[in-house]
Amino acid sequence: MWGCGALLGARTRSRLWREVLVAWGRRWSAAAPYSASAEPSRVRALVYGHHGDPAKVVELKDLELAAVGGSDVHVRMLAAPINPSDINMIQGNYGLLPKLPAVGGNEGVGQVVAVGSSVTGVKPGDWVIPANAGLGTWRTEAVFSEEALIGVPSDIPLQSAATLSVNPCTAYRMLMDFEQLQPGDSVIQNASNSGVGQAVIQIAAALGLRTVNVVRDRPDIQKLTDRLKSLGAEHVVTEEELRKPEMKNFFKDMPQPRLALNCVGGKSSTELLRHLAPGGTMVTYGGMAKQPVIASVSQLIFKDLKLRGFWLSQWKKDHSPASLSMAKPGLSGFPGVQHQLLPLGVAHSLSCRCSHV
After folding, report:
1. 15: left (phi over 0), alpha (psi -120 to 50) or beta
2. What is the pLDDT of residues 87-141, one digit of tens each?
3. Phi/psi-derived region of residue 45, left when phi > 0, alpha when psi is between -120 and 50, beta in every other case
């Protein structure tokens, strides 16, 4: 997914939309405690019947709860975040669009209330997350097919469980699939304070990889720098600093990155390319600047740089569950990494989503 805000729109529109959802969340939390015998009219959802400005096309509606069939799972939603891709989907600017009318939300975590007679993978009380995008998580409860859900441990933080299925897995796959990185190698990325960016920092640190994390300048830059370093970031630089000639000296003390992760596009992506090691790869997974990626001819010819794209939904389509069931997450070459990832709330994502989709 475009986890960094590709085609998101103006900041004011985003803030307005967040206010709408915050207000809805307050109404939800203020409601009476959930009961399995609640009337169908108590099932509420944020629904859109056509594409457009989310603040204008999304409506809070009461939906009828479907009966639980043999392979169905009745789920009460516990938490669901707002991702830029959620906004893109409502706007109609995303690579995957559900049939209308649709319920918003691609990510979240819910608790199983009841299961059909043929369901074997989950039981009442279990926590589950969507197996694919487009499920529609912005609702109080729903009945889904078992194959649309993945069980996750219920002993991890609620917010971590609700945000497992997109950003951490996007970060993990990009770190593993494009360059054969070894401990001590370096990675450079922009939008480093995004959801994907923070996951990259944590996973890279656990893998022994060094990171150069590019962010936009701001009044509280030191506060942001400290926060990213607390997650494991080795270096945090601003877009302006990255453009300075002095950056050449920066890479005398550490290896040039072999992998660049681009969520911005435009000038920012050009600067990432400029600092890539010869033969390196830049992977684009977002386009916050809404500007094309521009690579100079000299970079392509004399440095033999590679430009790639990544979309988690497409990756999943290309990898069948059968083949993934025999695959390992690729961490065997990094002793102790599984243990290090556990406190980050990422290990569950890797095992539940990236290698056993």
Report:
1. alpha
2. 999 999 998 999 999 999 999 999 999 999 999 999 999 999 999 889 999 999 9
3. beta
CB 109 within 8 A of CB 78: yes
Specify the DSSP class assigned to residue 262. E
Tokens representing 249? 């000296």
Q: What is the pLDDT of residues 183-226, one digit of tens each?
A: 999 999 999 999 999 999 999 999 999 999 999 999 999 999 99
48 is known as an active-site residue: no
Pairing of strands 186-189, 149-152: unpaired
Degrees, nearest 5: CA angle 146-116-61: 70
Q: Which residues lie closer than 8 Å to 229 by C-beta, 6 or more apart?
A: 236
3-state secondary structure of 228: helix
Give strand pairing partners of 189: 213, 261
- Supply the pTM of this predicted model: 0.79
Q: Which residues of the chain have pLDDT under 50?
A: 1-17, 19-24, 26-41, 323-357
User: What pLDDT, on the 0 to 100 scale, is given for residue 332?
Assistant: 39
Output the CA angle 347-351-355, nearest 5 degrees: 130
With beta carbons less than 8 A apart as the criterion, state whether 159 and 84 touch: no
Angular region, 133: left φ>0, alpha ψ -120 to 50, beta rest? beta
Q: Which of 34, 48, 94, 285 is catalytic?
A: 94
**Contact predicate 284/262, CB 8 Å:** yes
For 188, the 3-state DSSP assignment is strand
Q: Which amino acid is at 30?
A: A
Contact 125, 114 (CB under 8 A): no
CA angle, 176 then 179 then 184, to 5°: 85
Complete DSSP assignment for 59-91: EEEE-PPPP--TTEEEEEEEE----HHHHHHHH
Query: If you count them, how many residues does the chain have?
Result: 357
